[in-house]
Design brief:
The chain is an all-alpha fold. Helix content is about 75%, strand content about 0%.
Length: about 325
């Protein structure tokens, strides 16, 4: 931890000084700091990257997909030139995916120009999907367009849309929506490419990802539909603005899960709004009080108990009224 703090402070110093040579040299000419830093580069790198794998330099020199993943283009070209067959047989998928993840179109073009890319890609459907998902998740519109221009495989627009939504890439999403509408309008043709949106509830997915801006965009663009899960996901994400917007702009409604998510998030404001504005407000969701008690939120418990007493009182009044009406009807008959 101490080493990581030093490393971050050094980064801050260098950034603030715009890499002034004099200050940089002062830091690294300090024998203690210099030795400490360079003796622990691997540890510092691992701590900063957390879950990402860290490679030694000698490993990088023998792993072409690592070269690609770190944008060592010239190194990769040299390796590929000497080990073309081995590289294609053992590392092709990893190279393509890593180049996609980094958004490096230059490397992609190089690899694709060097091999019969279309033949290889047709034989591997899972790689097609991985390529598309990686490009869309990272918002690489230029990569998505390039793959489309280079391949004739079935374009899985549902997957691309979902990944673009998860990444929050509006520009790419707009492009994909345009592609979807354009190809679907000519779906009767015998074209080898087609857009597939088997999951029409794409708005649910946007709500699940807590992307309110994308929910509104999909709604305005009339793309897909939603279910009552959209409001449930908004409640799950503790997003009352999205919850209210869905209620006022769409007709799917919500389920009891919205109440439970509000309780789980200790959000009394949301719980009150749900009770007052949705059809479920006529009766509190089953087990709501029990779930609030499990959370130990006194304010929620008190409010729910007040609602419970209100419903019990209302129910008892109705029973008395019904009994009175029955007795009155009996008296009239007599």
């Amino acid at each position: 931890m101490f080493l990581l703090v030093i490393f971050r402070k050094l980064n801050l110093i260098v950034a603030c000084c715009k890499m002034e040579k004099e200050i940089f040299l002062k830091i690294f000419n300090n024998v203690v700091l210099s030795r400490l830093i360079f003796d622990n580069v691997r540890y510092i790198h691992t701590a900063c990257l957390k879950t990402k794998k860290v490679y030694r330099w000698e490993e990088v020199l023998s792993l072409p997909y690592v070269m690609v993943g770190n944008n060592y283009f010239q190194m990769f070209k040299n390796y590929f030139y000497k080990n073309k067959v081995e590289t294609l047989l053992q590392n092709f998928n990893a190279i393509i995916i890593n180049a996609t993840r980094t958004g490096n179109l230059e490397i992609l073009r190089y690899v694709i120009d060097e091999i019969q890319f279309e033949i290889m890609i047709r034989c591997n459907r899972s790689l097609q999907l991985d390529m598309l998902a990686s490009a869309a998740l990272n918002g690489y519109l230029h990569i998505v367009k390039y793959y489309q221009s280079k391949t004739k495989f079935r374009f899985d627009c549902e997957l691309a849309l979902k990944m673009a939504i998860e990444g929050g890439h509006i520009q790419l999403l707009e492009y994909l929506v345009g592609v979807a509408k354009q190809i679907e309008s000519s779906s009767s043709s015998s074209s080898s490419s087609s857009v597939v949106i088997s999951d029409h509830r794409i708005i649910d997915h946007a709500a699940k990802c807590n992307r309110f801006d994308i929910v509104r965009y999909l709604h305005s663009a009339n793309v897909g539909t939603a279910s009552n899960k959209a409001m449930d996901y908004a409640a799950l994400n503790n997003n009352i603005q999205m919850l209210m917007w869905l209620h006022h702009n769409r007709a799917e409604g919500c389920t009891s899960d919205s109440y439970y998510h509000a309780i789980e998030n200790n959000n009394l404001e949301m719980l009150k709004w749900l009770y007052e504005n949705t059809s479920k407000g006529q009766q509190m969701a089953p087990n709501a009080l029990r779930k609030a008690e499990a959370k130990g939120n006194l304010e929620l418990i008190q409010w729910l108990k007040a609602i419970e007493r209100k419903h019990l009182y209302s129910q008892r009044c109705k029973e008395i009224q019904n009994q009175t009406n029955t007795n009155l009807s009996t008296s009239i008959k007599m």
